[in-house]
Design a protein that fits this description.
The complex is a heterodimer of chains A (about 200) and B (about 650). Chain A has about 200 residues and is an alpha+beta fold. Chain A has two domains: about 150 residues, no CATH class; about 45 residues. Chain A is built from four helices and seven strands; from the N terminus they run βαβββββαβαα. Chain A has a two-stranded antiparallel ribbon. Chain A has a two-stranded antiparallel sheet with strand order 3-4. Chain A has a two-stranded antiparallel ribbon with strand order 5-6. The radius of gyration of chain A is 20 Å and the shape is globular. Chain B is built from 26 helices and 22 strands. The longest helix of chain B has 21 residues. With about 650 residues, chain B is α+β, with helices and mostly antiparallel strands. In chain B, the strands form seven sheets. Chain B has a six-stranded mixed sheet with strand order 2-1-6-3-4-5, sandwiched between helices. In chain B, about 40% of the residues lie in helices and about 15% in strands. Chain B has four domains: about 200 residues, Aldehyde Ferredoxin Oxidoreductase,  A, domain 1, CATH 3.60.9.10; about 180 residues, Aldehyde Ferredoxin Oxidoreductase Protein, subunit A, domain 2, CATH 1.10.569.10; about 190 residues, Aldehyde Ferredoxin Oxidoreductase Protein, subunit A, domain 3 (Orthogonal Bundle), CATH 1.10.599; about 50 residues, no CATH class. Classes of the chains: A alpha+beta (about 200), B alpha+beta (about 650). At the A-B interface, helix 1, strand 2 and strand 3 of A face strand 13, helix 7 and strand 16 of B. Strand 2 of chain A pairs antiparallel with strand 13 of chain B, so a sheet runs across the interface.
Chain lengths: ~200, ~650
């Protein structure tokens, strides 16, 4: 059930593609910030913002990962801009099953932009900080939004995507089996440590 | 865990179709860093001097710099090394863009290519999955056209490609390797790729690259990216100002013949800016660099293409035309895969020979009368090695000798058989004499840049300049600048120190993968405030890689690399006699002065009077094995003295002999 509309501070990243020089620093910075441990590695393929670049065609479009969805849209529209064809997918930020974009290499878990949530909070998301040409800028606006918006952290989002992929039963079974095993391991390790 | 580097290289033998992933020795990294440094170690160990450039035993090495793809802003270079068909010496060329970082994320620091494929192939690297694939469908395709086809074929827009065009396939000695906005153009790397029948290397990498001190490195990255963006002396300064009096009024036009003082005018600039802006789509940068050095052009009737730096001017200056001609011909030349420094000179040389009757209509059937048409005619002939194009494709030095009939006289701008920047100046500039004569890269822009080209007019200005000159390696360098009044008035000792420093900075960049436009080539002559210099690069190496070095340690590694390259060339026959800048490079020459300067420089470098690194020098740099090899080959005896002592000895022997005669 949806809640009543309410005023809320909305954090936004504006994109001015005309100012983009194609350096992909946004990708690099994003991947560093979201590395584990933080900043310990970089990998543009793991970034939650991606540069769609076709150099000769003058396509330099940063796209931010938006929402996770378990179903793909129909994506049937074709757009022509300056003689080049694009689809609904071309500039879409959704994490959807139709493509590999915004999924962690290896695990395939969804990578969603969280505006660089940090403790203490950052003044700016790192991609914006990493963009001195100002192709990316940050703003906060007051907007009327539907209340009770569900907000998932990385773990919840990852679980949700696994749930969508494998179904509740398989996931629950696997989880029970693994947690049982690791509990046993943990117990025998503690017992060993006590003996030592 | 290895930081900043992946710790692996890819060995590809195209003769046998063998591919191996090989772990690299961390000690080699500590000795040579990466990029050019680790590549030359491979060349020294694996390519004996008898190996011809077009032999299957010659290696073609694509190396990322040690810091390439790390958060160190501007570290994105790929260095291409081999032995060059034109010079039979060390080949060095650098490219930016996205390719090097992609290779690192695929899990490799470098690719070492040996052998020769029987048929045209391309290499497809998708993380650990590496394949040699048939490229018969790419035969004759343009360099960037090939990249487009491969991205479609592999169904991934993020695939990064280096490729050659028709010039490379036909082993034109000045063929380039192209990568969208960037090229490894000088030296003929494209010809080696073509000889190995390797049309392209496509890479996709999605692996992590770890760094040693994450938080500190990230903080400095955010700071640097902003600083570099705001520093007007970094990047291509020609991108920020359309005014290019510097090249047009000072560099030589045609076959490096004529200076046109006063060519540049306000009216010219207005016209040129108008048609440039009407047709430009965007200025772009390389991976992890906020500068905008490449101009993406959509010239009417041409495929969109990138124009950059002095390459924006070389074609029209060689043809005595204007910028619109460069914009028009560059896309064609880039698809063929040509170096924009050598190629226009070769064509202007051919036109000169035709004008004086050394080349005739028999050599150039249906040769057009208009100079623009002539350039297209020649470009096509050379790319196809068709008729006279087959001769011109070997570069001016070899073409002149093949043509004969006095053509040698028109080869006036090569050094070590390699076309030089078209500089024809008045008075000899001592540091520039040394850089031109002795630089292993045979190309002044890859050697100069840290020390200013000109003194400032007053002592006060010079003192102010040095007061914040963090990049200066020591107090002595600051002193030299403060005392410097007249451009050409530099002592030999000062020249040696200046040249040594200039060189060292490029050797550092080419090993760590920093773009020269944020470091070695954006020093003194651009205001002396480069973001990277000998004092702070060790900090970035530590933060990204973990290797702890101080300024002297870094300097020593660069000197080790420099001397190893010297030894590579010496082993292939390079000697003092070859260190002769073109006769007309400066109008006023003084043979005795130049030779004394060369003696002093060799002495400063720890070389023999013949320009060979001495045994003691090599040992001090940890290159004892190089010294042993040179001694075994009879190139060194091991007893060589510094040039000053050698001259004294020779003098004593002469006078001693004379007294006996009396």
């Amino acid at each position: 059930m949806k809640g009543e509309p309410e005023k809320k501070k909305v954090r936004r990243i504006r994109v001015d593609v005309d100012k983009c020089v194609g350096c992909r620093s946004c990708q690099l910075a994003c991947s560093a910030f979201h590395a584990n441990p933080k900043y310990s590695s970089v990998n543009p393929a793991r970034a939650r913002i991606r540069m769609m670049i076709n150099p000769q065609n003058d396509e330099y479009v940063p796209i931010r990962a938006t929402d996770y969805t378990k179903a793909a849209c129909d994506g049937r529209r074709v757009y022509t801009i300056n003689g080049n064809e694009y689809s609904d997918c071309s500039f879409c930020g959704s994490i959807c099953p139709a493509r590999d974009l915004f999924k962690e290499p290896g695990t395939g878990l969804p990578l969603k932009c969280d505006m660089c949530e940090d403790d203490p909070p950052r003044e700016l998301p790192v991609c914006v900080q990493a963009c001195p040409p100002n192709a990316l800028t940050y703003e906060e606006v007051e907007e009327e939004v539907e209340g009770d918006e569900e907000k998932l952290d990385d773990v919840a989002l990852g679980l949700k995507s696994l749930l969508d992929r494998y179904g509740y039963e398989q996931l629950a079974d696997t989880f029970a089996r693994i947690s049982q095993k690791s509990r046993e391991q943990h117990r025998s390790r503690s017992a060993r440590e006590r003996r030592d | 865990m290895r930081y900043a580097e992946t710790g692996y290289k890819l060995e590809v033998d195209l003769s046998r179709g063998n591919i191996e992933k090989v772990e690299t020795d961390p000690e080699i990294t500590e000795q040579h860093l990466g990029g050019q440094g680790t590549a030359i170690k491979e060349l020294w160990d694996r390519v004996p001097p008898e190996v011809e450039p077009f032999s299957p035993e010659n290696l073609l090495i694509f190396s990322t710099g040690m810091l390439t793809a790390t958060p160190v802003c501007g570290a994105n270079r790929t260095v291409v090394n081999s032995f060059a068909p034109q010079t039979n010496m060390y080949l060095h060329s650098v490219l930016g863009g996205y390719w090097g970082p992609e290779l690192k994320h695929a899990g490799f620091d470098r690719i070492v290519i040996s052998g020769k494929s029987p048929d045209l192939v391309y290499l497809w690297i998708n993380n650990d999955k590496v394949e040699i694939r048939d490229a018969s469908h790419l035969k004759g395709k343009g360099a960037n056209e090939t990249a487009d086809i491969l991205r479609k074929e592999l169904n991934d827009q993020d695939v990064q490609v280096v490729s050659i065009g028709l010039a490379g396939e036909n082993r034109v000695y000045f063929a380039s390797i192209e990568h969208g906005s960037s090229s490894a153009a000088r030296g003929g790397a494209g010809a080696i790729m073509g000889d190995k029948k390797l049309k392209a290397i496509a890479v996709r990498g999605t692996k992590e690259l770890n760094v040693a001190y994450p938080k500190e490195l990230f903080e400095s990255y955010l700071r640097l990216t902003k600083e570099i963006y705001e520093n007007p002396a970094t990047g291509d300064t020609m991108a920020d100002s359309y005014t290019d009096t510097f090249h047009h009024d000072n560099f030589s036009w045609g076959n490096a013949r004529v200076r046109r003082k006063g060519f540049w005018s306000e009216e010219y600039e207005e016209k040129y800016v108008k048609f440039t802006e009407e047709n430009l789509l965007r200025w772009t940068g390389c991976y992890n660099c906020p500068k905008h050095c490449h101009l993406l052009m959509a010239w009417p009737g041409r495929k969109n293409n990138f124009v950059k730096c002095f390459g924006r001017a070389t074609y029209h200056m060689a043809a005595f035309k204007e910028h619109d001609f460069s914009y028009e011909i560059t896309p064609v030349a880039l698809e063929y895969g040509f170096d924009s420094y050598s190629t226009p000179q070769v064509m202007a040389f051919a036109i000169e020979l035709y004008k004086v009757g050394i080349l005739t209509d028999a050599d150039l059937p249906n040769f057009p009368s208009d100079v623009k048409d002539r350039f297209y005619y020649l470009l096509d002939k050379i790319a196809r090695r068709d008729g006279i194009g087959d001769v011109l494709a070997n570069g001016i030095y070899w073409a002149a000798r093949q043509i004969g009939k006095g053509a040698e006289k028109y080869d006036h701008n090569t050094l070590k058989k390699f076309e030089q920047v078209p500089l024809k100046l008045g008075k000899l500039n001592p540091p520039y004499f040394l850089m031109t004569a002795t630089g292993e890269k045979m190309n002044v822009p890859q050697i100069e840049g840290s020390f200013p080209q000109d003194p400032l007019p007053t002592r006060e200005e010079r003192e102010e300049f040095v007061s914040g000159w963090e990049a200066a390696p020591n107090e002595r360098m600051k002193q030299i600048f403060v005392e410097w009044e007249k451009k050409y008035d530099v002592t030999n000792e000062e020249s040696c120190m200046i040249v040594d420093w200039n060189e060292i900075m490029h050797y550092v960049d080419d090993a760590v993968g920093l773009c020269a436009f944020v470091s070695s080539f954006r020093g003194g002559q651009f205001g002396g405030r480069p973001p990277y210099h000998i004092h702070n690069i060790p900090d970035f190496i530590k933060l990204a890689h973990g290797l702890e070095l101080d300024k002297d340690g870094l300097w020593k590694i660069a000197a080790r690399n420099r001397n190893l390259i010297r030894a590579l060339n010496v082993r292939r026959g390079l000697r003092r006699k070859d260190e002769k800048p073109p006769e007309d490079h400066w109008a006023v020459r003084d043979h005795e002065f130049e030779q004394n300067l060369l003696d002093d420089y060799y002495e400063f470098k720890g070389w023999t009077i013949d320009g060979i690194p001495r045994k003691d020098t090599l040992h001090e740099l940890g290159l004892g094995y190089v010294s042993d090899d040179l001694i075994k080959r009879g190139i060194l005896t091991g007893d060589e003295l510094p040039p000053s002592q050698e001259k004294q000895k020779q003098e004593a022997q002469k006078t001693g002999g004379a007294s006996r005669e009396r």
